[in-house]
Amino acid sequence: MFKGFIGDFKTFLQRGNVIDLAVAFVIGTAFSAIVTSLVGNIIMPPIGLLLDKVDFSNLYVILKEGSTAGPYLTLAAAKKAGAVTLNYGLFIISLISFFIIALVIFSIVRVINKLYPKPVAPASTKSCPYCYSSIPLAATRCPSCTSQLES
């Protein structure tokens, strides 16, 4: 029984789609790290400057004070004091990262779809050899000229 399990598992791992999924996961994780860095280090600082020097990573609401009473100057200070916080600034950064990743994936899929030829619909009609009107493929007689058609 155990030998059959190992054989089935080996067959499962050797399928192309499992390997493709593993490669896609690794590339996606690396890409996500790049986009997170892009958003946190390149995009958000200028936006913060435009919005009166706002640091999005330090936007939070204190739900419960920590062992040391506030006010806390940074999110890290609030966490260190044990305060319970609602980190809406980090959520905004995550939303921007998500939209950038979604935009890039959409663009990639769109380009890939343009590389493949569009499928041609199979013919559902044929031309009558006598009057050249369009008739269904399965027709044995032309509805326009009533000619008997060869099968």
TrEMBL record:
InterPro entries: MS_channel, MSC/AndL, MscL_channel
Signal peptide: none
Keywords: Cell inner membrane, Cell membrane, Ion channel, Ion transport, Membrane, Transmembrane, Transmembrane helix, Transport
Annotated TM spans: 21-44, 88-109
Superkingdom to which the source organism belongs: Bacteria
Subcellular location per the Swiss-Prot or TrEMBL entry: Cell inner membrane; Membrane
UniProt membrane topology term: Multi-pass membrane protein
Keyword field contains Transport: yes
Function: Channel that opens in response to stretch forces in the membrane lipid bilayer. May participate in the regulation of osmotic pressure changes within the cell.
Quaternary data: Homopentamer.
Protein family according to the UniProt entry: Belongs to the MscL family.
Entry protein name: Large-conductance mechanosensitive channel
Gene: mscL
